Amino acid sequence: MNQAVSTEAIYNKQANSWSRSEKILLSDFTARPRVIEELGDISGASILDMGCGEGYVSRMLLDRGANSIFGVDASSEMIAQARETASLNNLTNASYAVGNAVSYSSFPQETFDQAIAVFLFNYLTIEEMTKVMSRVRSLLKKGGSFVFTVPHPCLPFMREETPPFYFQHGDTSYLDGIDQTFEGKIWRRDGKPVSVRCVHKNFSHYFAALAQAGFNTLPIVRELSVTQEHLDLDPDFFTPLAGYPLHVLFKVQAND
Ligand SMILES: C[S@@+](CC[C@H](N)C(=O)[O-])C[C@H]1O[C@@H](n2cnc3c(N)ncnc32)[C@H](O)[C@@H]1O
Hints:
Order of helices and strands: HHHHEHEHEEHEHEEEHEHHE
Number of helices: 11
Helix content: 25-40%
Bound molecules: S-adenosylmethionine
Largest sheet: 7 strands, mixed
């Protein structure tokens, strides 16, 4: 459970497995569509995508009418893929930067209409996550939403280490594993696993960090899982996860 391999190295190595133009990964079915849904009407919006990876979600946002997106990611390979795909698809309103979301400050504009962080905070400690939330808060226009997803904090302790999604919590418990890194894997529907990790936090830490960052309205919280639609689509893939809380989505608004 130490971080002998950096997150950046993990993503540089497996950027090709993440590169996609349609739903491939488990979470492309169970989480990312819910982020889009939760943002609501994004027509004309400028959107900040922290931990954007190879740009899959940001391209979906542009496809749904966003005016522009700016993504930051620590992995140079993921950003190279994002830029290449944007260029191939002539997406001139998508721009990307390599950077650590915790310290990045060269944003191309002073404010954004909306912001997302899709499975970024599971790579950060509580302190780092709070810094990113504070930055996002300072960049959001009044009324703008910040939507983020993380692995459900209970999942590592509820499920054994079997496909298509798991984290190894070792001998730590839900309460004492705080800020410890759990290595994990999430599967693609074609049977290929990709490596992921989760710096463990409890529910209380997300609420405290949001408050500390200056988000002073109650977040909307959704505990995401496999739905009947998923089970109907591919019972072999999704049934092992039926009934488990997989991810948590938070949506919070900047009210000034
Ligand atoms: C699970 S992937 C998700 C990528 C993208 N948001 C998506 O939904 O397809 C997590 C991403 O977070 C990035 N990441 C991890 N730590 C980071 C950090 N400190 N700063 C910026 N990006 C980071 C990784 O490089 C990786 O691309």
